[in-house]
Design goal:
The complex is a heterodimer of chains A (377) and B (331). Chain A is α+β, with helices and mostly antiparallel strands. Chain A is 57% helix and 13% strand. Chain A has a three-stranded antiparallel beta sheet with strand order 1-2-3, with no helix packed on it. Chain A has a two-stranded antiparallel ribbon with strand order 4-5. Chain B has two domains: 70 residues, no CATH class; 230 residues, MetI-like (MetI-like fold, Orthogonal Bundle). Chain B has a two-stranded antiparallel ribbon. In chain B, helix 5 packs across helix 12. Chain B is globular. Chain B starts with a helix and ends in a 6-residue tail after the last helix. The relative contact order of chain B is 0.13. The chains are: A alpha+beta (377), B mainly alpha (331).
Chain lengths: 377, 331
Amino acid sequence: MLAKANPKGAEPVSTADDKFYAASERQLIWWRFRKHKPAVIGGIVLILLYTVAIFCQFLSPYGPTNRFPDYQNVSPTKIHFSEGGKLHRPFVYAQKRELDMETFQYVFTEDTSKKYPIYFFVRGEKYKLFGLLETDLHFFGTGDPKVPVFLFGADSLGRDLFTRTLYGSRISLSIGLVGVFISFALGLFFGGISGYYGGVVDEVIQRVIDFLISIPTYPLWMTLSAALPRDWPVVKSYFAITVVLSLLGWCGLARVVRGKLLALREEDFVVAARLAGASEFRIIRRHLLPSFASHIVVSITLSIPGMILGETALSFLGLGMQPPAVSWGTLLQDAQTITSVALYPWRLIPCIFVMVAVLSFNFLGDGLRDAADPYSV
Amino acid sequence: MGAYIIRRLLMFIPMLLVLSVVSFVIIQLPPGDMLTTYITQLKRSGVDVSEAEVARLTQMYGLDLPLHMQYIKWFGNLLRGNLGYSFMWQRPVTEIVAERLPLTIFVSLLTTVFVWAVALPIGIYSALHQYSVFDYVFTFIGFLGLSIPGFLLALVLIWFFYSRFGLNMTSLFSPEFLNASWSLAKVLDMMKQIWLPMIIIGMSGTAGLIRTVRGNLLDELRKQYVVTARAKGLPERRVIFKYPVRMAINPLISTIGWTLASIVSGEALVSIIFNIQTIGPVLLQATLSQDMYLAGSITMLLSALTVFGTLVSDILLAWVDPRIRFGRGGN
């Protein structure tokens, strides 16, 4: 914590203090944020996750619907780094499939006679990067479609779970952002008029918010998304679900905005602006919004994880995104029964991604909250 | 006090009215009216629907009436305890819900008690021993509890218990009690299984409450009256428990509405995974097959329950905190 000014003013002020008082608000927020280590780590993890989501086509070795019929339900491929005690570039062995006559399950064994090194920047399935650039370059792979690498194993149709998890992050991670954007617009609007005008308008909006908050979220989300037709195309149901999630999400934001506005409305600089004849719009835009922008950023960050979880839960239950759309929730549908989880535990891997994303957002939000008001002690 | 309770009870009525409108809208949401959907479903499964049957159903739900008249008819039925007819179960919604409601309320209340029983002592301890090792441990656990969603944790734990100990936690009862009627032995058997879902459902609520209690108690402990009490030479235990703890408990009661909403909401999800015979799994099936009468009624009922819980908590709060009772505003 940076030292405060010496109240007696007898001793000379140190250079650290000079820096503190000369710094801009932005600078102060950054200094404070940097001290909150979990928040910094959370931020870095999130940047990584979103980068992966953007470049998932390049980073994944296959396409999301690419099937390897000979590798159904195969466990994660072992990657070897040494052979006979000698260090070797990463490689995998070819796998042989046999039917276990007792359990009627396929058993995979490594065929140690055939080695397949893992290369970087290999040619594979064609895709259009960002829908523009056609290429077949993938980050890694064996280069041999007969011997695939499954970092997270394969599903019951023989599709690579690693590839699908990366593709799934596109929907799962973006739905939080889009949903928050809608909630934010609603929250800012209703919270804004509620806090700025007060009186009856305020009372009505507050009662509506009280009411919405007291409704159990998941049952309402489930019922609302049940009303959506199942045969809608992916893009349409994506936005419909975002809207469903945002219907309850704006309440918290509206409360924050209202509380801040109520406090700020009485501040001298707002009164001064009003006396100087500034229009209401100008007061809101020039004086009020910048004063609580940082608090809004905090609330936004903290409401994204709820949206991500909502989508995951709905898709997991079969009410959200419908296959062939890939999201972390739809991938977890395969892990619903205890038998599938016991036999193929790698199906729970998308779960880890959800938890990491949610935790990171929470840590980041917590750090931002501490940093949002850099003048407090 | 009496006037306050009456005022709050009167506010409960418009809330229920709004809830009923919301539920009705939800029931009407899917495109096409539900009778046509039902008839196509029946025809697909080979059952022929007679003209008379269609006319009877149309008459029963007032489907030939304008929308607002349909609502009034539906609401009138609702008041008489008729929640409509579930096409999937071929039974009145009231029956299905009545079967499952007791266990739902039981699990929710049990979880609420669990949340309080755990959060209160930990919150007080953390506040009294601020920045101690245990304070940090509890803060960290609380943070995880808030962040990790119950249904995902349930999945991971089911796998863990199964792979480590060979335990199947996905049933509330042992096989011999599955179809038995309620008895002491069955309740005891349930208690052996119910703790895990209970902890998972209550986790986020507990974590939130620990934070609230800790923060509030810390605020109270810094106040002048605590200093005065100490200066008077009161024993430390009495100083803390006489007033500051009592003040710190207030949010416990005032946030019960949100806690209850989150418990009921989490309960629905976790019950689906643990296969507990509460309303949650029925809601899922109803939503999956677009049985909107059942789904809408359940949403309405669960919401009404939480709104009622909030009402009870408001009255409790007024009873505990005289400032609210006399209308001078509380926290």
